[in-house]
Amino acid sequence: MGAFNTAVVPRLHGCLGCGDEEPMTLQFHFGHAWQDTYRIGERLRWGGNDKGTPGQERAEAIGYQEPCATCGLDEDREYVLVFEHDVLTGGYRYALPEDLVRLE
């Protein structure tokens, strides 16, 4: 995957292994991809190892779920992260097969 950023967001469901409902971490390639961590409402940084185009009214990126921090279960699930004017919104969702084709 190379350099990436992470988004820490509320889970859409509890962990399938242990039921943990703590926030999950999603890896994504968008913005200054250099292992920066974002939360909902935070603005992306740009300049350097940029992936995508800054300043878009709306942009989406695939987020790859990291293993559960409590039990280590890797659900191998993808999400669509939504950015509006470079800000991570709360509008993320499970990725559909067509999202993976469109956004990868």
Report on this model:
The structure is a single chain. With 104 residues, the chain is mainly beta. The protein has one domain. It is 7% helix and 34% strand. It contains one helix and nine strands; from the N terminus they run βββββββββα. The chain has one helix spanning 97-103; strands at 5-9, 24-28, 31-32, 37-39, 50-51, 59-65, 78-84, 87-88, 93-94. The strands form two sheets. Strands 1, 2, 4, 6, 7, 8 and 9 form a seven-stranded mixed β-sheet that branches. It has a two-stranded antiparallel sheet with strand order 3-5. The relative contact order is 0.25. The mean pLDDT is 94.
Number of domains: 1
Described by the principal axes of the CA atoms, the overall outline is globular
Distance between the termini: 11 Å
How would a textbook summarize the main sheet? 7 strands, mixed
What percent of the residues sit in helical stretches (DSSP H or I)? under 10%
Q: Secondary-structure element sequence?
A: EEEEEEEEEH
Low-confidence stretches: none
Strand content: 25-35%
Class inferred from helices and paired strands: mainly beta
Number of discrete helical segments: 1
Mean pLDDT score: 94
> How many β strands by DSSP?
9
What is the alpha-carbon Rg in Å?
13 Å
